[in-house]
Inverse folding.
């Protein structure tokens, strides 16, 4: 053991001596300004002569490569037996190499790469990050990143340039993992170069830049600084045209940025909503999760919420709750993320995924095939539950628009969301994720309940004790923890009561088997009945939209006592309805589609109007403390005392007050 320590100490001492050799005493390559244009001299790292070897440079590069290979799995350099050498080597690499202008301007690109690799490996120890800050390494590294970025985007991929960019972005991703360091990184302008690198042609440079920006964007001020630059347009282009991994990372970054109101506006300006909705057709569960949370934040804007409905977003969201199948691959990072070999590429076996993922997406370890399969299954289940939670959150935001709420109900949303509140068996970890899903589902249902025309339906769904807890939450409460009591209540119910709720949900399923058929129309529900007949909610076979079918009993003295009198009355009614059908065509008038007689009954097929009465809209608006837009000044007083006063040309305020003559 002592011999090994002594040998390691000699190697580290030799490396330290190489690094501490002053740049003025090194045989650094010179740049022939006469043979190169001024623009070419702006390249960084500087172009190297095609011939002529520099022994010291090669020796140093080889020694640094050996160091990075030997210590690539080390995590705690401060507790190592050679900690003094490690600290001195790290300080020398920072001061004598990275912060040495003469060296960085003339050193071969391979040597610069080796220095960066070693710095990255040693900064796994958080104490070395602090040393790096204290030695002004962050500011100098940010300047070098900007130079390397400008050179790469102007002149393309020179020797080791892509690998240098990967290492730099990886180091900044490490540094930005600590909250207190992010604002200093922004002050050094790190984010500007990273955003420019979103246009990189090398996919790994793009991914590394996205990872660094994702880490930076987890704090408010850095997030705002990133959003102020031209990041939104580039991210939307990546989401539209790039590979799946690039899309996933871009969606995560956009999700973080959308907490800034300015970014929300930019997404609207660049038509981001249709791009995000188009991604809902994708089957990658991780991409979908981030896209959904983007939509959750965007849907808080009334105009965007309306756009999502008009672009067909609601049926897409509901389909994710019941009929979609998803995939979840374990992301693999291409070779080259942590370069450390003489050829400037890292073999797959030496990739350090922690360097890149760093608690952002995936954490994996070496396991046997059986445990990997089990782990993937558990991970997939957890991701599916989280995806449905995000979907419920998006629907909750959309429900604040009454027209959206109506469409969610019409598209069987209450049944689909209701299925998610039913208790399930699982592990403790699964139960925690499922509890979150139940809270999200109950919140979406509670928002839907707040639309008055849905309230009778919910009374039929829940037993009295659960309904009482459900009601006590209040209207339009966003705080997810508020729904904990109702989740605990349903999970404590007996199996018989849970089965009863499930049966009630099945009865509310609009896609259930019809109760009967009238001609070609499936009768789904009886909407009302009286002395003259009934009104049914129906749909034609294979159709998705519902219609109203009015059934009138012809065996009634009102239509005549004899068959001849009844036929005459029916003929007159059909003639009137035909005139209405042909001449009364207006968006605000109920459409008549057809009439027919069957089994001594007259049937009138007409448009189904499922919107709430105007008073219910005003009640809903009052509960949401919202406003109605109007074009003229007026005051409306309902006979029951429900009043609306419009104080300005643009805003109507809902009030409840005594009726005055």
């Amino acid at each position: 053991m002592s011999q090994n320590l002594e040998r390691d100490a000699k190697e580290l001492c030799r490396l330290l001596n190489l690094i501490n050799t002053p740049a003025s005493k090194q045989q650094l390559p010179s740049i022939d300004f006469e043979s190169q244009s001024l623009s070419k001299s702006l390249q960084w790292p500087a172009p190297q002569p095609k011939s002529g070897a520099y022994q010291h440079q090669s020796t140093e590069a080889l020694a640094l490569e050996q160091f990075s290979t030997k210590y690539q799995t080390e995590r705690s350099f401060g507790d190592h037996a050679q900690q003094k050498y490690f600290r001195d080597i790290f300080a020398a690499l920072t001061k004598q190499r990275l912060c040495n202008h003469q060296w960085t301007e003339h050193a071969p690109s391979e040597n610069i790469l080796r220095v960066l690799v070693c710095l990255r490996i040693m900064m796994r120890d958080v104490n070395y990050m602090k040393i790096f800050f204290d030695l002004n390494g962050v500011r100098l590294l940010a300047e070098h990143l900007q130079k390397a970025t400008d050179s790469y985007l102007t002149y393309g991929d020179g020797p080791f340039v892509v690998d240098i960019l990967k290492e730099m972005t990886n180091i900044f991703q490490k540094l930005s993992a600590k909250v207190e360091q992010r604002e200093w990184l922004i002050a050094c302008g790190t984010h500007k170069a990273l955003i420019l690198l979103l246009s990189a042609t090398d996919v790994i440079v793009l991914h590394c830049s996205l990872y660094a920006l994702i880490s930076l964007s987890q704090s408010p001020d850095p997030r705002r600084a990133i959003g102020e630059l031209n990041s939104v347009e580039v991210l939307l282009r990546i989401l539209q045209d790039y590979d799946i991994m690039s899309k996933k990372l871009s969606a995560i970054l956009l999700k973080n940025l959308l907490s800034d109101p300015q970014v929300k506006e930019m997404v609207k300006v660049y038509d981001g909503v249709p791009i995000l909705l188009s991604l809902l057709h994708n089957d990658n569960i991780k991409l979908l999760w981030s896209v959904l949370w983007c939509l959750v934040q965007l849907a808080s804007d009334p105009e965007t919420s309306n756009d999502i409905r008009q672009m067909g977003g609601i049926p897409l969201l509901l389909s994710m709750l019941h009929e979609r199948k998803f995939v979840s691959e374990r992301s693999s990072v291409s070779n080259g993320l942590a370069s450390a070999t003489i050829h400037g590429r890292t073999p797959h076996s030496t990739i350090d995924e922690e360097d890149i993922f760093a608690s952002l997406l995936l954490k994996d370890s070496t396991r046997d095939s059986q445990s990997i399969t089990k782990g993937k299954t558990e991970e997939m289940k957890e991701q599916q539950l989280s995806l449905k939670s995000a979907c419920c959150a998006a629907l909750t935001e959309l429900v604040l628009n009454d027209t959206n709420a109506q469409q969610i109900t019409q598209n069987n949303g209450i049944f689909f969301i209701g299925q998610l509140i039913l208790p399930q068996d699982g592990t403790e970890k699964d139960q925690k994720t499922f509890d979150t899903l139940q809270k999200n589902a109950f919140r979406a249902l509670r928002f839907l309940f707040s639309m008055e025309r849905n309230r009778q339906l919910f009374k039929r769904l829940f037993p009295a004790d659960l309904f009482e807890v459900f009601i006590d939450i209040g209207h339009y409460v966003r705080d997810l923890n508020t729904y904990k009591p109702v989740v605990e209540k349903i999970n404590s119910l007996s199996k018989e009561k849970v089965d009863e709720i499930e049966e009630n949900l099945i009865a509310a399923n609009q896609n259930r088997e019809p109760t009967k058929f009238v001609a070609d129309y499936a009768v789904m529900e009886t909407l009302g009945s009286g002395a003259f007949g009934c009104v049914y909610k129906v749909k034609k076979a294979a159709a998705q939209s519902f219609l109203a079918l009015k059934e009138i009993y012809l065996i009634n003295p009102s239509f005549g006592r004899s068959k001849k009198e009844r036929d005459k009355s029916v003929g007159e009614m059909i003639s009137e309805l035909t005139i209405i059908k042909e001449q009364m065509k207006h968006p605000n008038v109920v459409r008549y589609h057809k009439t027919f007689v069957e089994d001594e009954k007259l049937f009138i097929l007409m448009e189904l109007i499922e919107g709430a009465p105007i008073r219910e809209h005003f009640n809903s608006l009052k509960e949401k403390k919202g406003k109605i837009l109007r074009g003229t000044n007026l005051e409306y007083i309902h006979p029951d005392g429900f009043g609306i006063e419009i104080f300005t040309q643009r805003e109507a305020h809902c009030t409840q007050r005594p009726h005055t003559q």
